[in-house]
Structures are given as C-alpha cells and as structure tokens.
Amino acid sequence: MTGTRLDLQEQHRAVDAIAAVAGELRRMAARREERARDLFARAGYWRADPDAVEHSAVARALRAEADAIEARGSVEGGPA
Angle 19-21-25 (CA atoms, 0-180°, nearest 5)? Predict the structure, then answer.
C-alpha cells in the first residue's frame, strides 16, 4: 500500500511540475504578445516593426512549447 501511495504522490508532483512549467511558458508568451501589440500599435498599420514581429514569433514558440510539454505529460500519464 505504501509503495502505491508513494507512486501516486510522485505522479501528482510530476503533474504539478508539468502544469507549473506550462503555465510559466504561457505567462511569458502573454507578456511577449502584449509587447508585440504595443510595438505594432506604435509602428502603424503601414509597416511592421521588426521587434514586434520577433516578439510575436517568440510568443508563438513559447505557446507551442507549453502545448508540447502538456501533450508529453498526457502521453506519460500526466495532464492533458
């Protein structure tokens, strides 16, 4: 019984860690998206600010990594 309880505790810790990492990546992405919106607004619709484009690309990459981490966790028995 004790071994099973420890296994469950380890699984819960892994799930919590996956959720924490994915959550932090999503918060970082949100900050990058906000910065990109600010830069795009300053540049005007007639031109793209290279920094805004970079912030948008980084935000997409961070969100993709968060999705991948969560997907790997679901395959390994963690959160979906």
Answer: 115
